[in-house]
Amino acid sequence: MTPYNKLAGQSTGRIEALSDAVFAVAMTLLVLEIKVPEFHEKITDKKLMSGFLDLMPKFLVYFLSFITAGIFWVGQSAQFKYIKNSDRNITWFNLLFLLFISVLPFSTAFLGDHISSKFSIFLYWLNIFLLGTMLYINWEYARKNNFISEEMKETVYSPLKRRMIWSQILYFAGALLCFINIYLSIIAIIAIQLNQAFAFIGNKKQDA
């Protein structure tokens, strides 16, 4: 009889469908962390504007996390354009990847509530690092087990691998800027992500 482990996790379509659902929920939950300010006295435009401006750090972190989720959704989608077969291990690598996606609203809320803390930046960077690590493991495993055609290995394997490695190096550098200024660190990570999304600098000829 064929072992169960040889039968499980054969559908890449199921992985992609579940991924889209988890990403959609996580990206929606991000905005729920921005609470409308409450006032227990007479509201004036000045107080309302002041309350709205107090939310700017949370809007900044929300934008950061929405772009983070978008970057990783595109990254996973790019891999599964070329991964034509799956097995149990590929399925579980992606379930772990989705676990860290589902944690993103928490790390975002933590950073938004403690935006002056270096630990909150570390926790957020760790979330990004674990996401990148799972994508890297997934891609390497797919290559080594011939889930990518030989023809595609030559044209897409190295650009995607290089992008993942450089992204993590840049994210780490951006996180280290928190020792200079927290907001500088957040803005640097956002700038890195925007360049990844739109290739403003450099790699249009490579892997943008």
Structure summarized in a few sentences:
By secondary structure, the protein is mainly alpha-helical. The protein is 76% helix and 0% strand. It has eight helices and no strands.
Distance between the ends: 46 Å
Question: Would you list the SSEs in sequence order as H and E?
Answer: HHHHHHHH
Q: How many helical stretches?
A: 8
Q: Which range does the strand content fall in?
A: under 5%
Poorly predicted ranges: 204-208
| Arithmetic mean of pLDDT | 87
* Sheet/helix structural class: mainly alpha
Which geometry do the CA atoms define?
A: elongated
**Strand count, sense and closure of the main sheet?**
none
Count of distinct strands: 0
**Roughly how much helix do the residues carry, as a percent range?**
over 70%
| Radius of gyration (Å) | 20 Å
Which helices and strands appear, and what pairs or packs with what?
Elements: H1 4-7, H2 12-32, H3 45-53, H4 56-82, H5 88-113, H6 118-144, H7 150-176, H8 182-198
Question: What do these coordinates show?
Answer:
This protein is mostly helical and 208 residues long. The chain has helices spanning 4-7, 12-32, 45-53, 56-82, 88-113, 118-144, 150-176, 182-198. The chain is elongated, with a radius of gyration of 20 Å. The protein starts with a helix and ends in a 10-residue tail after the last helix. Residues 204-208 have low confidence and may be disordered.
